[in-house]
Amino acid sequence: MTNILPTRQKKALLRCLIDKIVIHHIAPNKIQTRIVWKGGETSSAVVTTTVGAFRNLSSANEIESLILELTQQGKTDEEIAQYLTDIGHTSPKNIHGVLSSTVSTIRLKHRIFLKRSQSHPRHIPGFLTIPQIALQLGVTAHWFYHLISIGKIQLTRDVQTNLYLFPDQPETLDLLQQLKVGTIKNLRF
After folding, report:
1. Considering Cα of 143, then 147, then 152, then 158, what sign does the dihedral take?
2. Sheet with 30-37: strands ordered across
3. Quick one: which of 64, 80, 169, 175 has the fewest CB in 10 Å?
4. Is 0.90 topped by the overall pTM?
């Protein structure tokens, strides 16, 4: 039937066969559906939907526990994501399975680092990284990345470290503070 009828006719046929559909939220990311057919028969199913945040998943605690347990066993984020997907879990905005970025986020939330640099911020003599300078200015690192992306801060990544590096000088902080309050509109380093 999927290739015989066009979509418009399939929808019309279903409308002729269905008496009503009953939908009931049983969890933030689970919907119980019941179709009542014209002859009185019913069909039921639980449908998984997306949610806006990990904490809104009905199985968030179970997923988090499994991530921590599997990480301690030496599994990679990708392996853990695949395992969680295979047993029926999903990420908040992805009904098709668990993303490795979800696993990574939970792992980092519990301060489980795979690389030393994740727990020990880099120190480059004579320069400040975005997280270091953001802390001094009282802004988020995202504020810097946004201003760089729209061209308000013109700065290229260091070739060796692949980081945005600001000169570690008092003038740098003064200029960035002026940019923050709107005294100046653009900066070039």
Report:
1. positive
2. 18-27, 30-37, 42-48
3. 169
4. no
pLDDT 10s digits, 86-118: 999 999 999 899 999 999 999 988 888 776 555
User: How many domains, the chain?
Assistant: 3
Claim to verify: residue 38 and residue 77 sit in the same structural domain: no
Residue 3 domain-assigned? no
Q: Does residue 2 form part of some domain? A: no
Residue indicated by tokens 């689970």 = 30
Looking at the chain, the number of H-run helices and the number of E-run strands are 8, 7
Residue 11 is assigned to a structural domain of this protein: no
**Cβ contact 123:168 at 8 Å:** no
DSSP string, 52-117: SSGGGSTTHHHHHHHHHHHHHTT--HHHHHHHHHHTT--BTTBTT---HHHHHHHHHHTT--SSHH
Residue 149 within a domain: yes
